Amino acid sequence: MAVDAARSDEGFTSAGAARVMSAACQATGLDDRGAELIRLGENALFRLVSVPVVVRVARGEEYLPKARTEVGVSRWLAAGGFPAARIVDDLEQPLVVEGHPVTFWHLIVEGDRKATYGELGSILRGLHSMTLPAGLELPPFDPFDKQELRISRAAIPEDDRVFLRKRWCELRDQFGELRFETPRGPVHGDAHVQNLMVNQRNEAVLIDFEAFCFDHPEWDLMVTATEHHSLGWQTDEQYADFVRAYGRDLYDWHGYDTLRRLQEFGMTTWLMQNVQEDQETADEYRRRIAALRDDDAPRDWRAR
């Protein structure tokens, strides 16, 4: 039986993803020589040297619907002139290589600064006010859709796996009791400031559309609210800029604590996919899983 190019008993690795990226480039006539791994997370991202293109390799064929959503969202945002990453239009996408969806994106050449939290609030406010076009169907937000895959595949101790499945069930019950008062609309689904890039024209540009959905705006606001109120990753001034630009502080909402728990759970399971990559990631995973086991413990997590 053939072995998946990027999956072995050790899981999705940077080396395996690089082999898939190379095969995808060959299939589309792109030169992958000297390609650089930018990031390994839910996907592997590679920057090509030959052309200003980023190649995005998903973990498996089950991510194909998400890849199709990314392509559709990119084309919609481009048509509306929204500041966002652009798909390479002259390639048929997504391309599936040995079970891995692959997409190709125009490289965003970064400027001299990072995006601010005020810019994130402004971008999200603009996004949430948009109307979806006919023909673009987005799923509802599902904080649980990837959790079973992550838990079953990650190279973690079995007692951690048992604990995470138990916590998952608890969170599903809490989620079922949530009552939203806001209307549904387009939602990014992973709206942290690292998913904004500032280009050479000094414009903040939204990236990473994999979790894009049609749901309540609280799902986007919970990311920065959790990072500030629970993890302390922003100063009070930075968070105030975010709230001022968007016009709302999720911390004041009755459902914040449930969303905070969901966000922390997702951040932990996202990281644990790569515990085999290096010791630093493995150490950070142990820090996060220990905190999940004690909801009142301080969160001394490090951004990854």
Written overview of the protein:
- The structure is a single chain.
- The chain is of the alpha+beta class and 304 residues long.
- The chain contains nine helices and eleven strands.
- The chain has helices at residues 14-28, 64-79, 117-128, 147-153, 158-176, 218-229, 236-246, 256-272, 279-292; strands at 7-8, 11-12, 36-40, 43-47, 53-58, 95-97, 100-106, 185-187, 196-198, 204-206, 213-215.
- Helix 4 runs antiparallel to helix 5 (158-176) and helix 5 runs antiparallel to helix 8 (256-272).
- The longest helix is centred in the middle third of the chain and has 19 residues, at 158-176.
Rounded radius of gyration (Å): 19 Å
Sketch the topology as an H/E string, one letter per element: EEHEEEHEEHHHEEEEHHHH
Q: In percent, how helical is the residue content?
A: 40-55%
Judged by helices, strands and strand pairing, the structural class is alpha+beta
The stretches of 5 or more residues where confidence is low (pLDDT under 50) are 1-10
Average predicted local confidence, pLDDT: 91
Count helical runs.
Answer: 9
Tell me the number of strands.
Answer: 11
Strand fraction equals: 5-15%
With strands numbered from the N-terminus, the spatial order across the biggest sheet is: 3-4-5-7-6
Q: How would a textbook summarize the main sheet?
A: 5 strands, antiparallel
Globally, the shape reads globular
